[in-house]
Amino acid sequence: xxxxxxLQQLAGEVARLRTSIAxxxxxxxxxxxxxxxxxxxxxxxxxxxxxxxxxGPAARFFLQDLYGAKDFSQRDAELARLVPMLVRLLPxxxxxxxxxAIEMDALxxxxxxxxxxxxxxxxPMAIDEAAYADAYRRTGSRDDRERQIELIAAIxxxxxxxxxxxxxxRLLKAMxxxxxxxxxxxxxxxxxxGFEAFRVIGGASAFxxxxxxxxxxxxxxxxxxxxxxxxxxPVPPSAPPPxxx
Length: 245
Description:
This protein has one domain (3-223). Helix content is 73%, strand content 0%. The protein has helices at residues 3-22, 25-45, 47-50, 56-66, 73-89, 92-119, 129-138, 142-162, 168-174, 176-181, 185-199, 205-223.
């Protein structure tokens, strides 16, 4: 299966998942509450990255555009229609990156649905770390969770390489007008935000290593049975003692 076919298949899968969730008011409420709780957890765990001028845009892209609590139904519908244009215009490496992003989208949607159904909470304030930890362990598999983290790192590395492509930035900008005329503005804006967020980093290896290490540590803690304290923000290093006079 080439990247265009993979992208088409994954786009259809995530759209079907979200349509199914949206069709049931109770499931929709449970999933929305979970996603909001997770968004807060991610913002707490990665608060330092979000506050750094160099890394903040990329952190927001990951936490809001790739794995957030937004309503992505319009973006899903646009993606299904945008695939033929992407296949014609974008290089294979860019198609592979978008396919990875949509694979993570579909995987996260399936896992979130499972956790939300376990928790049955209509309000994110009714979810606590202990209840989430128990539901996390009962939902999906460790392989699924590890794949989720692998995709985060792979997407970041790919974006880091793509922003060095001399023509890709201009191509994305040139697609803006036709995308809007065709009613594909949200999907185009998503692609541009990802490109621009990584362009300003000037090398994303340290940023990605920090995210991956933290999320892997959380995975290990949860599968080791942790029920509290596993999602805390990193403790900043101690300041060096003042030099003696």
